[in-house]
Amino acid sequence: MNSPQTLTADRTAEHKRAAVRRHLFRQLIVELALPLGGYYALRAAGVNPWLALIAPALLIGGFLAYGAIRQRRLDTIALFTLTLIVVGTVMTLVTGDPRTLMVRDSWVFGVLGLWILGTLATQRPFMRTASRAIVTAKIGEEGYREWDARWDNDSRFRYHLRVLTAVWGTVFALDALVRVLLAYILPIDAIPLVSTVQWLVVLAAVMVFHNFYVTRHGLKA
Length: 221
What we know:
Elements (H helix, E strand, L loop, with lengths): L3 H41 L4 H23 L4 H20 L2 H5 L1 H15 L7 H28 L1 H29 L7 H26 L5
Helix pairs in contact: 1-2, 1-6, 2-3, 5-7, 6-7, 7-8
């Protein structure tokens, strides 16, 4: 028979796993289902490509802004997504070209990839900052502070976070280049689907590597 302490630990672990699942589910809805599903639904209703891209983007921006206000905190991923929406919308308003909006993610992902690589020379490489939301969801703010404190006294921890940062930055930059090229070759209505599928394949591959790497080198919270 399990002791009360064991039962409490099991419930705590389950709550942490549930929190991570909820976080990932929200990310999938906001960053995948709404923009892709919204675009094709509006196109099927006869809406022009420009408006079909703008409308879901504005809806997503509203959701992210509401979440930031409600939680009184804007995490790195939400800020990045909002940046994509704002930059892409402004670029499209200036050029009037729907393809410009379709490649907004690619251009910004490319710049992000270069920026991620640039953070390697700092005390806060991208992976150290980006891990906060997931680590906090798993073990809370206090647990995150303990995890992050390893940076100051563990040279291997610093090395491994920089390796992961280099991998993510390189993947973002190269994937963005390929998607931009495809966006100006493919038929306009094929771009969102092909671009999304490509990104999901690349993302799945890098996440498998990421999970293997953090498990092998003891980086998990």
